[in-house]
Design goal:
Elements: H1 6-20, E1 27-28, E2 38-39, E3 48-53, E4 61-65, E5 77-81, E6 89-93, E7 99-105, E8 113-118, E9 120-122, E10 129-131, E11 136-140, E12 148-149, H2 157-160
Antiparallel strand pairs: 1-2, 3-4, 4-5, 5-6, 7-8, 8-11, 9-10, 11-12
């Protein structure tokens, strides 16, 4: 049995971890007095950019993996867990080489997930940042089994030179 407030503490820690961009896998901070966090799943990925926890089930987690910022990284994408982060399944692979920078559950839904991809890579000092066409908002309405890219009037790299996106989903 979990202590009262454990789910809320986990949500807060996940939000804090997302803000500081955890670099090596997901860790469990739910025991406030624990001196060291327990390593959970995704130890092989780098650059966790965001963590979303389902408001209806704290064991249902989605993670946006930015990946290596200086090289192509086949581990970029969105990963999901239904056991509180102990194991993960890849829900969305990045076909364009874009790293995922944001992931959110729609308010009141465990099956609708939004993910933001940003195609960029830091190059040497002379080249700066390389951007591309993979910057987009992805939507899944079946808990990550299928995804589609949102369009229909949103800015794009091709038409507008868009290189960065962010997302806030409101009820």
């Amino acid at each position: 049995s979990q202590a009262p407030g454990t789910d809320e503490l986990r949500r807060q820690i996940a939000a804090d971890a997302a803000r500081i961009m955890v670099e090596e896998g997901v860790r469990d901070f739910h025991a406030a007095k624990r001196k060291a966090a327990t390593r959970l799943g995704l130890p092989e990925v780098t650059g966790i950019a965001d963590i979303a926890i389902d408001n209806r089930d704290a064991n249902h987690v989605a993670v946006a993996v930015r990946g290596d910022r200086f090289a192509d990284d086949p581990r970029r994408g969105v990963y999901g867990s239904t056991d509180g982060g102990r194991t993960f399944t890849r829900l969305l692979a990045s076909e364009s080489g874009a790293g995922m920078t944001r992931v959110q559950f729609a308010p009141g839904s465990s099956t609708t997930i939004y993910a933001v991809a940003r195609q960029s890579r830091l190059a040497d000092w002379f080249e700066g940042e390389l951007a591309g066409t993979g910057t987009a908002i992805h939507l899944s309405e079946d808990a990550g089994r299928t995804w589609r890219v949102l369009g229909g009037g949103l800015p794009s790299f091709e038409a507008d030179g868009l290189t960065r996106l962010d997302l806030v989903v409101a009820p």
